[in-house]
Structure formats: C-alpha cells, structure tokens
Amino acid sequence: MPTSESLLLDPDFVRDPHAGLERLREEEPVYYDPHLGWWFVTRYDDVKRMLADPGLSKSRSVFDDYVAPEPGSFAGRFDSASVLHKNPENHRVWRKRVAAGFTPRAVRRMERQVREVVEQFAAPIREATGRVDLLAAFADPIPNTVIARIAGIPPFPGDESRFRALAQDVLRRYVFFADEENLRRGDAALEELAEWILKLTGDRRQERSEDLVSDLIHEETEHPPLSDDEIMVFVASLISAGSETTTLGACHMFRHLFDHPDQFALVRKDPSLIPNAVREALRYDFGSLAAVTPRYATEDFEIHGKTIRRGDSIMLSPASANRDSSVFEDPHRFDVTRDAREALTFGNGPHYCLGANLAMQELSFMLEAALTFLSADAVLKSSEDDWEQVGIMRRPLRMIVDLRR
Fold first, then answer.
1. Which spans in 207-339 are helix H?
2. Tens digit of pLDDT for each residue in 192-205?
3. How deeply is 220 buried, as exposed, middle or buried, from its count of CB atoms within 10 A (0-12, 13-18, 19+)?
4. Which of 145, 107, 175 is nearest to 355 (CA)?
5. Could you give the domains of the chain?
6. What is the reported pLDDT for 65?
7. CA–CA gap between residue 347 and residue 334 (Å, rounded)
8. What pTM was estimated for this model as a whole?
9. What is the distance between the alpha carbons of residues 137 and 154, in angstroms, rounded to a whole number?
C-alpha cells in the first residue's frame, strides 16, 4: 500500500475501489492514509462495532483544535443545535422527540406524498421519445421535492432549481475536502435555508398543518418539543444530506440494473423484488467510497495492532464492509434476490440513519415508476465524461438513457 501518496484519492481507486478495498480488508484492515491524516477501517465486524461505539465521537468539537463557526451566525446556531454535539443520553432523548414526526399517521401521509412526487416526474418521461437525462429529469429533482413536500416547505419562489442548489451547497460545507470557497458558499446557503425554515416554523406554531414541521411542534410526547433551532437543523439536514444521498442512490441503482440486464429482467418479471433490488444496489456500490462515516477518538486505543490516538480521525467504510465475504456470500455479485438487510449503508446502533425508511421508500417508488417508462430495449449511454470526482466521491454529472421508442 502507498506510504507517501494517498491511496484513497487515486482516481483509479475512486473509479473502481473494490479490488483495493478487498486487499485492505485482508492485509491492512485499519489503514492509515498519511496524505489525508485518516485511519480507514474496512472490515464488516469492525465497522459495525465502531458505528455504535459510544467511546467514539461524531463531532470534532470535543477536541482542542476545533474551530467553531462565527458566534451568532446561522452556522454557529446550526452546530450548537446539531445532534452531533449531544452526549449519548441527550441524543437518545432527541431521537425520541424527533419520532413525533414519524407516527404511523405521518408515515402514511408521507407515503402518499412520495408517490405523488414520483408520479409528477415520471409522467413526462412516459411520453418522451429518444434520449432523456435520467439524473436531471428524475433522480435529482425527486428527493428535494419530496423533502420539501413532507416538511411543509412551499416551493422556492419561482425557482425549484435554486432549492436544490442551496441543498447541495449546504452539504458540501460539511463534507471532507471543503475548501474556503465551499465553506463560504455553504454558510450563505445555510443562512438562506435557515431563514426560510425558521419562518415556516413560526407559522406552524401559530397554525398547524399536515406536515412534518407541524408534527414536530404539536405532537404530544413525554419530552418537551423541539426548539426552533433544533427544527431548523433537522429539516436543513434532511434537505441537504437526505436529498443528495438519495439522488446518488438512485443513479447507482439504475446504473447497476442497466449493467446487469439479467437482474433488471428479474425485477421486471417480479416487481415484488423491488425493495430487495434497492437494498442490494445500495450494498453493492453506493457511490464507491462516498459513504464513509467519520468518527473521532476520544481516548487512545488499539485495533489490529495499530494504536489510535486521542483526536485521530477514523473513517469507517460501509462500502467496504458491504463487500466483506465473511458476511455476504459471493459479495462481488449483484443479485436482486439476495437478502441484503445486514448491509451497513444506513449505519448501525444509536446513530442509525433517521431517514433510512424514507430513502428506501423513495428509491422503491422511483424504481417502480421507472419500470413503466424504461423498456427492456432502453440503453444507458455512459462514459467517463459523465462523472466527476469530488475527493473520494464519484458523482454523476448526467445519466443519458436512450429510451428506444
């Protein structure tokens, strides 16, 4: 393994990391990348255990070198109200309070709203001929629109694309390799989103509506309701992280199905396989290395003969864990009949992704709708020019499909 240059940033590795990840699992399951200053953990059992380890922090704010956002800024308010900075007990209580937005009645309402949004974008493609950009026309707009609909946020005045741009700018502020420009744009986007959400929260405190923000405010629980800033953080997180990751998940799901026409044929023949196909696509390859999950050591410890020091950054790799042959038989085979429920795509333990069920619902409905406009003759036109590398992430720029009709 490289000792001076970054293995994890190598374009060939990012393009197709799984052979390299397999070598790491076998030879160096806790790998230090000197260029990035990360420990990189790749085996399933280690990743699963460390995702749930209360001795590992999700926030760098516990360390001496943490640079807090400007006091009084929306970024500062965002960080102070963020679940990342809560201790385990406060985090447990916070999740119970957030559960007020996910009652059975609310979940049924969300299902209807998700179906309506998916149909809104699927209908024009059914009438289309020739080529369509599945990213721009379908995979990209749906997650943002879904989150806005369920949260109760009205469409951004005159420009839905502005809404998506804000979400992406906020997300890029918090991902690795964020430079000064991305931090500046992210802060400005967060301020715009925060003002928007806080106004909505104030309106919903005065008059309840049928939406997530109203549920978070008015649903009776054993704990006090969320504050305005906590609601702002939660909804902004849904908008940014939930939208971008679901878009990526949809793109990779369709790519895997096109790359494995025999598996796509199975789903066409038996749509009851759709939830399985979604889980398997996320297990098989969800944006290559994009799904790394950061943790920070709060004390020294040893693992596989390596000493992790207090303050060290540890990147847990669900992408690698999900191809671990000790858990998944023939892990490099894409199989829509596989039971992939043990995959760690959405995490494990107390920090298991709150939006996992919503993401699965969106992706399942998107695939269900796509079966009505992607015939067996449809062809994905893909080249390297259709992708960009952002750090360790491989992100699609377009997804051109020839509908062949």
1. 212-218, 228-237, 243-259, 261-269, 274-284, 318-321
2. 888 888 889 999 99
3. exposed
4. 107
5. 11-402 (1.10.630.10)
6. 60
7. 21
8. 0.89
9. 20
